[in-house]
């Protein structure tokens, strides 16, 4: 379900948060379905359980999951989460456009590149 990239410069907990957010937003993890336990996911990924707990805390803070005392963590999806994620993506895109302009790449060229897809120059 979750594959970590050890070459990624982001901390492992951020990668876990990102992967679960994507799975939830795509509907792979259904609303109110139970999340893997901290311990079982830590064993599966061969990482410290504290890393999983930190990721779950962040997911709960941002509204992607909720905790039921003594029962575990559950998916808490609603359409508002999709809009939040959409806003984050547009913020990243705006930052990328500003960075591209600093290197002399016009917005029109960026738009053309996006429309064409991942073609090699």
From TrEMBL:
User: Which Gene3D superfamilies does its entry note?
Assistant: Winged helix-like DNA-binding domain superfamily/Winged helix DNA-binding domain
Q: Taking every annotated instance into account, which residue ranges of this chain make up the domain HTH gntR-type?
A: 10-78
- Alphabetical list of SUPFAM superfamilies matching this protein: Winged helix' DNA-binding domain
Instruction: List GO molecular-function terms, semicolon-separated.
Output: DNA binding; DNA-binding transcription factor activity
Q: Which controlled-vocabulary keywords does the entry list?
A: DNA-binding, Transcription, Transcription regulation
Entry keyword DNA-binding: yes
Q: Name one Pfam family in it.
A: GntR
**PROSITE patterns, sorted:** HTH_GNTR
Q: Tell me what this protein is called.
A: GntR family transcriptional regulator
Source species = Candidatus Eisenbergiella merdigallinarum
